[in-house]
Amino acid sequence: MKKQLNNNHYYAVILAGGSGTRLWPISREMYPKQLLALTGNKTLIQETFSRTESIVPKENIYIVTNKQFTTDILLQLKSYGFTREQLIIEPAQKNTAPAISLAVDVIQKKDRGALILVSPADHLITDTVAFKKSIITAFARAGEGKLITLGIAPDSSSPEYGYIKPASAIGKQVSVPVECFVEKPPQEIAEVYVKDGYLWNAGIFIWSAKTFNKEIKKYLPEVVHAISLRETNNEKFIEHFSVLSPVSIDVGLLERSKAVEVIKVKFGWRDIGSWKSLYELLGKDSRGNVLNEHALIIDCENSLVYGSEKRATVAIGVSGIVVVDTEDAVLIVHKDETHKIKNAFAVLKERNKMQYKEHKTVVRPWGSYTVLEEGLGYKVKKIMVNPHERLSLQLHHQRSEHWVVIQGVAKATVGESTLLYEINQTVDIPTETIHRLENPTNEVLEVIEVQNGAYLGEDDIVRFDDVYERNI
């Protein structure tokens, strides 16, 4: 009879707070790559959760993220049984060491004997059987008081990844101490590393809550102090956490601790960190091109061309480039220069160009909206409400709204009045007026919304009732 795996003390932390700037313009600050389906029908965070629940009980999987991603994560993982109680919200983005420390603190309060897998939300792993076997092996080693990191056996000398140098040849040993961690090197240095037996740093870690807490107290006491305030004084916790210096788990702990060991693994791992790495993953035509159904190419080779539904995207006679067209931004870059996209992203953010932050079409739990036009004192949106869904009961302090029904039937609450509106009928919502838009039918509701006011930001909203529990 096959022995059942006892995984009651197994926990997982999925890190989902990054912005994915190097995959701009499809990845935006408010809708980053972990929320996108890049290689199949599932988004990266759905793939990660599904893979993790094959090892860890789903109720023991926690996701660390930022407040602005919570609704989208809950929406994407609703069918997986993931709950709001499993979300851990960072008061501020301070890199991976504070984020992981916060998650470990939450878990160890629940189970002092916890063994914890830490994994990014945006990696691709093709051999899930080998992945599961590697993690179970790592859990056993972590139970012996080691901080385990997984080192991927490299199949190329990629400059896109960080590297781990084992302190000795691994051979038949389960794990060996780590001599050093190395940041992403130039191509010529990466080639030397691979020849010398270095491993790719996957950013996947396994340890016990007990060992982690012991080591983090030695090397990052300021992080431990901030998190110690979480249950006794939330205001002080937020204050202390928010002024922490950003520090990665590699720099803050793993490069300093004597308890770190690496396990050499091979399970088809890739970090989809750039357009170049995505190009290498996707299927290509006979001339090495990757394109989607909205792109047309003539006499091109070794290029990636992604078009959008809004307009034709045509590339002729080019080689080794990436072209990405979205509703409001176009990227053209040589495939070997895609790592510089983050620099362009930073300039867009500095100039307050909204293309860094969000797409023109924004997905919401009830449907979506598309910004059609905006200018000084006005914004025009097309709102799509799915059947039997409804927006929150809300008001705005600084803007009025005017709705025109263009498809379907709208149920509109304005103040004390609730009425049905059909095609071509209009609704006026003055500033400071409680209102709600609903779709009571089996058909999609489409509404044109015109906003007027001195400030038209999405944060000018006060919610009184919301089935999605946002900001009440």
Structural features, described:
It is globular, with a radius of gyration of 25 Å. The mean pLDDT is 93. The protein is built from eleven helices and 28 strands. The protein has 472 residues and is of the alpha+beta class. It has helices spanning 44-52, 70-77, 96-110, 128-142, 187-195, 209-219, 221-228, 234-242, 249-254, 275-281, 341-350, and strands at residues 10-15, 61-65, 87-89, 115-120, 123-125, 147-152, 163-166, 176-182, 199-208, 260-265, 269-271, 290-291, 295-298, 304-306, 313-316, 321-325, 330-334, 361-364, 367-375, 378-385, 393-395, 399-407, 410-414, 417-421, 426-429, 435-438, 445-453, 462-465. A hairpin with a 2-residue loop joins strand 19 and strand 20. Helix content is 23%, strand content 31%.
